[in-house]
Write a structure and sequence with these properties.
The structure is a single chain. By secondary structure, the chain is an alpha+beta fold. Helix content is 45%, strand content 27%. It is built from five helices and four strands; from the N terminus they run ααβαββαβα. Strands 2-3-1-4 form a four-stranded antiparallel beta sheet. Strand 2 and strand 3 form a beta hairpin. The mean pLDDT is 89.
Length: 143
């Protein structure tokens, strides 16, 4: 691991108890690793808002596959931006609803635009875009 610096923080006991319970449930061995993950998560989220250059994102969508021509519209949008779509996973949730997860990678503005365009497609019931950092940023933060 990279050069480590020890810090001290002050927390209300109720906040610390809740944090300890949560990280134990997730399987963290210690508070330090959980805090490091929280800091990395915040840095990644903030960097994604202001990032230029390459961006990596996961777009998650839930939709009713019976919605008129929706699946076709989503596929057309992805084919139109084939250079940004790394992979797509399609899961049947039941008789009517599908979950689709697409991994996008490319210039920041284009990735954001395609992700938002997919989510805004009429008939998409729920979805979100999750951004992550590229290899350079992760290396910079000691991950």
């Amino acid at each position: 691991m990279a050069d480590l610096t020890r810090i001290t923080i002050s927390l209300e006991s109720s906040l610390l108890d809740a944090f300890d319970k949560q990280i134990t449930g997730k399987g963290y061995e210690n508070r330090s690793e959980a805090i490091r993950d929280l800091i990395r998560d915040q840095l990644i989220r903030e960097e994604a808002k202001h990032k230029g250059g390459e961006q990596v994102a996961v777009v998650t969508m839930v939709y009713d596959h019976h919605a008129r021509e929706l699946a076709s519209k989503l596929i057309d949008k992805q084919h139109h931006h084939h250079d940004l779509v790394v992979s797509t996973l399609h899961v049947h949730l039941g008789k009517r609803h599908c979950l689709e997860v697409s991994i996008l990678r490319g210039p920041s503005g284009e990735v954001t635009h395609l992700g938002e365009e997919l989510l805004a497609t009429k008939g998409v019931l729920h979805g979100e875009i999750t951004y992550t950092s590229d290899e350079k940023s992760l290396n910079r933060w000691g991950a």
